[in-house]
């Protein structure tokens, strides 16, 4: 078991990373202050892991809320079902919510914990690779609104995170790849030696090698934790975590959310950001090719869909010259392993990237 | 104009207290970081003060959300209307929400500000005496759930509070009295000289003497601010602010919310808490009479409704002997101007209080 601390002063918390952690009571129990626990999970995960989690919580008063599975249910109305459950089973201010699931369950459960009686305890047990390396670090919680993703939420830190590699055995290969996209991101934005490690070891991740997965999760969380500790509320540097995301969001919006996985859209978006970085002269053609090759080996898309014309990107990213002045900020590579946020963007080069990456 | 600072480290904020403050731009503008402002008010207040507030915000991009008036609309669904308005008018993370109204508008607007894009700016312009002395200090925001009052919310501090006595001119006399109940509370729990001042000056408050009102608001806010600064998240001492509230909530629940005003129920509840304090030997019969007399002069109820039998109180407060062990905590007077929180409660004395205060 590896333990990593996310260093946020009096809101610091540990991430436990390893194999066969879920059934053991010793990881979670020190982080549960009261006698009440509310497990929030979804219909897909509950049959797989709920009983194992419950078995490790002997002696607690446990209530379970099972949500429908999918990003389309990440809404205020569905969070209200968690409040219903908490109030019906009379949970008080000492209760602890445990999110057992992927990013959607984690985001909603964290937001519910932030708001229930103005804040109760919260533990994350991520069941996807993406949730382990992304949403379990940093305290971003919330829900979508019909007019925008993640528009309603809170910064709220868990008491601990339990990342059990064993749970990844049930993850569909496409979701495993989507998680690897975010892992590669950390190599690109802040940890070039990790990028090189990934070039050597990506195949081990793809076949579910638990030791390699644990190493990649720990190193990803460590990279993210450093950025978050420096800028918890995203006033500045934290924005580099959005590398590939502005292009990726345009793709997700155009395709309708859910057709491309988030990690897949980010993968294509990272290639676009790297392509623009190369056109600006900040990375070499060889380095750009290595970014693309690694993502291809991870079975991720490296181009936008055919119907994403440059005009469509311009529309979705709001980047016509009129509105551009200082508004569009992109995360680009100054070098491999070193991302910067910039609003100094040459629209001609950007147009070339749009045209090249389809 | 009097200025008072609520001292909460990097979340400290000023309360401006005086007359004719609303129309002046100089109070609010320094606390608005961006160009976007969203005013949230209700149907009753909008015709009275909305145009005056808008006139002081020349040059800003203003969106207005007008909510229905009343505690029954303090729900997650109605808060969602604020989110709808913010997103439809494309407000970004630099927007500032201004609550123009009483406690319900303030609680909902503060909660919306806490959650919109994980936290944006927020200013309170209370239009009731109760909101000026209670909800505008301390950062408690939130909404009700069908199964409990204020069960969903956040601790979230405003950037500033503007308490303009001029606005109290339109307040119905019954609501003025309800606000005075909370003012008397501060004298009882932590400021005996203020209680004596109120014995001298309560009639001036009742006739709307703006100088006396400003003094009472400032001194109340100062008392509350000291308690909140010592215990922002209600881990301990802050509970003394609930003096009279446990009895009062039982009355409100029994009568159905909205039939008694909150301040009225608290007034009767404070007499009950003082009565029990006298039975425990902590204040004298004369002091108890002074509490009752001052509340009567403020035109507030000093007994529970006739149909509130002792058995009904026992039921609503969950105080039968079986469940009592350590569960019921009451705020009582150790002396005039000195409240304590205790779970050491003699159920026989409590029964006498239930019987006596009808």
Automatic annotation (TrEMBL), chains A, B:
A GO molecular-function descriptor: metal ion binding
Catalytic activity annotation: 7-phospho-2-dehydro-3-deoxy-D-arabino-heptonate = 3-dehydroquinate + phosphate
Entry binding sites for NAD(+): 69-74, 103-107, 127-128, 140, 149
Pfam family, one: DHQ_synthase
InterPro entries: Dehydroquinate_synthase (IPR050071), DHQ_synth_AroB (IPR016037), DHQ_synth_fam (IPR030963), DHQS/DOIS_N (IPR030960), DHQS_C (IPR056179)
GO biological process: amino acid biosynthetic process; aromatic amino acid family biosynthetic process; chorismate biosynthetic process
Domain 3-dehydroquinate synthase C-terminal per the UniProt entry, residue ranges: 179-323
Pathway: Metabolic intermediate biosynthesis; chorismate biosynthesis; chorismate from D-erythrose 4-phosphate and phosphoenolpyruvate: step 2/7
Residue stretches making up the 3-dehydroquinate synthase N-terminal domain: 65-177
Names of required cofactors: NAD(+); Co(2+); Zn(2+)
Key words, A-Z: Amino-acid biosynthesis, Aromatic amino acid biosynthesis, Cobalt, Cytoplasm, Lyase, Metal-binding, NAD, Nucleotide-binding, Zinc
Binding site for Zn(2+): 182, 245, 262
Subcellular localization: Cytoplasm
Gene Ontology terms: cellular component: cytoplasm
Free-text remark on how the cofactor is bound: Binds 1 divalent metal cation per subunit. Can use either Co(2+) or Zn(2+).
Enzyme Commission designation: 4.2.3.4
Functional summary from the UniProt entry: Catalyzes the conversion of 3-deoxy-D-arabino-heptulosonate 7-phosphate (DAHP) to dehydroquinate (DHQ).
Alphabetized NCBIfam families for the sequence: aroB
Entry similarity comment: Belongs to the sugar phosphate cyclases superfamily. Dehydroquinate synthase family.
Protein name: 3-dehydroquinate synthase
């Amino acid at each position: 078991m590896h333990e990593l601390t996310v260093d946020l002063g009096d809101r610091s918390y540990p991430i436990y990373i390893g194999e066969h952690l879920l059934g053991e009571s010793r990881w979670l129990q020190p982080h549960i202050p009261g006698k009440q626990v509310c497990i929030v999970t979804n219909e897909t995960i509950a049959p797989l892991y709920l009983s194992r989690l419950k078995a490790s919580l002997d002696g607690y008063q446990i209530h379970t809320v099972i949500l429908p599975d999918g990003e389309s249910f990440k809404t205020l109305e569905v969070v209200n079902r968690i409040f219903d459950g908490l109030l019906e089973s009379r949970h008080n201010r000492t209760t602890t919510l445990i999110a057992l699931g992927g990013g959607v369950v984690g985001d909603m459960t964290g937001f519910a914990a932030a708001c229930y009686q103005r804040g109760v305890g919260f533990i994350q047990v991520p069941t996807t690779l993406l949730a382990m390396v992304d949403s379990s670090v940093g305290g971003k919680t919330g829900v979508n609104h019909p007019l925008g993703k993640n528009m309603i939420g809170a910064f709220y830190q868990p008491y601990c995170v339990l990342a059990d590699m064993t749970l990844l055995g049930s993850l569909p290969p496409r979701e495993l790849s989507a998680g690897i996209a975010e892992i590669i991101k950390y190599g690109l934005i802040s940890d070039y030696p990790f990028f090189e490690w990934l070039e050597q070891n990506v195949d081990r991740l793809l076949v579910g090698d638990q030791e390699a997965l644990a190493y990649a999760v720990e190193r990803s969380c460590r990279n993210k934790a450093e950025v978050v500790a420096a800028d918890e509320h995203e006033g500045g540097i934290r924005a580099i975590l959005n590398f590939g995301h502005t292009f990726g969001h345009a793709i997700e919006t155009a395709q309708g959310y859910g057709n491309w996985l988030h990690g897949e859209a980010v993968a294509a978006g990272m290639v676009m950001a790297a392509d623009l970085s190369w056109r600006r002269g900040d990375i070499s053609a060889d380095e750009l090719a290595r970014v693309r090759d690694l993502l291809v080996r991870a079975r991720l898309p490296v181009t936008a869909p055919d119907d994403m014309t440059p005009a469509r990107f311009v529309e979705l990213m709001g980047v016509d010259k009129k509105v551009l002045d200082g508004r569009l900020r992109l995360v680009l590579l100054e070098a491999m392993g070193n991302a910067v946020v910039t609003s100094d963007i040459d629209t001609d080069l950007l147009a070339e990237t749009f045209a090249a990456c389809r």
